[in-house]
Write a structure and sequence with these properties.
Elements (H helix, E strand, L loop, with lengths): L4 H23 L4 H27 L5
Organism: Streptomyces niveus (Streptomyces spheroides)
Protein name: Transposase
Length: 63
């Protein structure tokens, strides 16, 4: 699938955010902050999927 620069920018932003959250959860394993970061990473993955699907459905270059 060929994607536009905006799709790649959206995806990169979410992946960076998810990476930060997962790294924080790994560093602070067993603590409440780690559990919160892990949950945030899961919700960010869901939000990324929604944003990318919405983008593909509206973008003439991607869709």
């Amino acid at each position: 699938m060929k994607t536009c620069h905006r799709f790649r920018r959206i995806k990169a932003g979410f992946e960076r955010e998810i990476g930060f959250s997962e790294a924080h959860a790994e560093r602070h394993a067993g603590r409440p902050a780690a559990r919160a970061s892990a949950k945030y990473a899961v919700s960010a993955k869901y939000r990324m999927a929604q944003a990318l699907n919405r983008h593909v459905s509206h973008c003439p270059e991607c869709g």
